[in-house]
Write a structure and sequence with these properties.
This protein has about 500 residues and is mostly beta strands. It has a domain of about 325 residues. The strands form two sheets. It has an 18-stranded antiparallel beta barrel. The N terminus is likely disordered.
Amino acid sequence: MRKLIVLSLVALLVLAFGTMAFAQAKKEEPKLNFVASGFIDVISEYMMNVPQAGNSTSAGGGTGPGNTFFGPPVAYMMPAANQAFNKKMGYMETRGRLKFDAIMGKEMMGTFFFEIDSNRWGDRLEAGLNAQRNRAGYWGVADRAAVEVKNMFLTFGMPWVPVPITVQGGIIPVGIRPGAFLSVDGPGIQAAIKVDPATIKLVWMKALENRDWAADDADLYAIEASAKISTMTVGGYVLNFNMNSYPVADAEPSYASNVWWYGIYAAGKLGPVNLSADLVFNNGKITDRRDLAVQARDVKLSGWGGLLNVSYPWEKFNFGGALIYGSGADLSKTSANGYPGSAVASGSGTSSKVGAFIIPAGTEGSVGHSIIFCGAGINRMNTGYEQAGSSAHAAATFGGLWINKLFGSFQVTPAYKVTLEGMYILDTSKKGNTIGNARKAPFGATNLRDDKNIGWEFDLFNEVQLYKNLKFAFGGGYLFAGDAMDFWDTARSKNVSPKNPWVITSNLTYSF
């Protein structure tokens, strides 16, 4: 009887502990969670001689050519009939972004990111432009096909390797120092590898898959490494854009390009100040693919850019300054697009070299330091003379510019902040200008004037937190234009100075 009782107890213990062990070994299946985030904004713009950033379409008339290594970057700012030169412009615009994250534990996530734009309230149809994209504000039939898929990708960890690795694949966002260098969305794969104290990021993106049976596609490769050292993050990167079709949209490629970028940066708190510094160089070439006899007729690309931003927070104040420099092109050696065989902008001859600091094709980043020239956050960086880098490399953001800036902000109340900034902007292009296209005697089309003074810009911004998720910003900027902003008026055969550019803007944003 005792044996039976003992054996029964042993059996019960084995069963109990066995069940507990099994329960501990069996992991609970992660649950699927959906998380939504995004924003909706309403922006007003009222201005003179200030274009929409990136050469976007203007209801003021005409579009900018884009994809240029030097100015004038915005056609509708030129003195011509039915264009916006010296005319006041006013419009409203709206953007909405909606992001869905399908999260499955810590190991897996899928993301859909949508964007809806109305470039102008009262969007209109224009010949040669997409009748749906960015035109959610079309009157009467507002149900446009204006929903854009900005991103669509999966993110997962790799727990079976000895170091933490996170991989993203699909239509992904890629940013490498966005305020100074690269910010782009597109198809590709990136992996972030954590090796304390460093993080290494590997990127491959397919910018163009043209004919599947021909070597005419375009690929971007990049590696970035960074490490946190005390209160500073330091890093560097190398990026190669090998484009067998140049520009990207060329279905029958006439040109190819192979360009490299090398950059270093540091950001963080250094003693009592906040510091951000970038230095990046580019080199490479554009090659004519059309005829073997002219394969040696390449255009060399070589430029550099740098950015230093320092601020000192003190109680409710924040004081600081910035130095921003982008090398400019020598227009006696460079054509507007830089293609081999194309005529130079100044003097005679064909394009042989581009010395301007350029950014990769497709980059949407903005330096964000000037509402008139390089975009400012108050209006979603939606104004500025920066050139578009859509389908070809361009001297965008601050290529051809030298900006010297001082600023100060004051947190008047917990909900209200005011910022004042002033800057002197110079032109770094040679044998011509980055923005203007004034001529010198004899007044031939390729006898361009070389000026340095773009002007003094002053900006005032106000930010009011109305509710936790609702923010209202308003303000503007005024530029005392210098000689480097002068344009050639073809109709009157003379150089003309634009009225001083100015902009007044407001932005109401609900974030969730």
